Amino acid sequence: MPLRNYTVLKGKAVDTDIAKSGKPHFEIHIKDDQKHDYRIAVNIESGSRPSEVLYFASENFNSEQITKLPQLNSGFTSITSDNRDIALDYVRGKLFDHTKMIPLPHDKPGANNDLKEKIEGYMDEAMNKNATLYAFGEAWGPEENEPDKYFNFVPGSGIHDIHMNQGNIARWKSDDGIWQDGGILIHFEEENRWVGIFLAFQSQSWCTDSNGHAIKPVKDCSYNNPGH
Question: Are residues 76 and 139 in contact, defined by beta-carbon separation less than 8 angstroms?
Fold first, then answer.
């Protein structure tokens, strides 16, 4: 069964935080044009081994999707078969060369050498330049009676699964699907420049069938020939 509510969230980043309990996440506070609040929860460590998340950032991202995204209303846009042309698929969409993805620890002493710092750097730049974010993943909320646990806005609402959502193992296989991968695209309007941030778990196979299920284990799936 694929993600229940595959969505793109459009807005402006206004603050960031790090999850203080549970699995490490990088938290982004985002507002839409009507000043509604949302949170983007980005996995920066895997619950499976190896724990380092695969990361790639395209500094000058270009794809068919970015010609359509600026026309979207701010806030949530559900992605269905009717507008699948804006969906992300790491395997089928040829969005980037995934052989360039590198595993990064979520936190490591030193400058700009871990996933937290990489994402934080782009979010700082986005906030300084008033860039527009497009976060792809699964939406949640509104949680009418609960304030957001990081940024305290009410009702709690946001998006997670900001990573590849196919080729999963064990209990995560139920999330598999095609054309439903997560990621963050940043549009620096004044420069007319796009940045794409893409994440995957090392336990995920890049060889997947029409349902997004792995057809080969990771060790037998060449990055240069990811499958269907």
Answer: yes
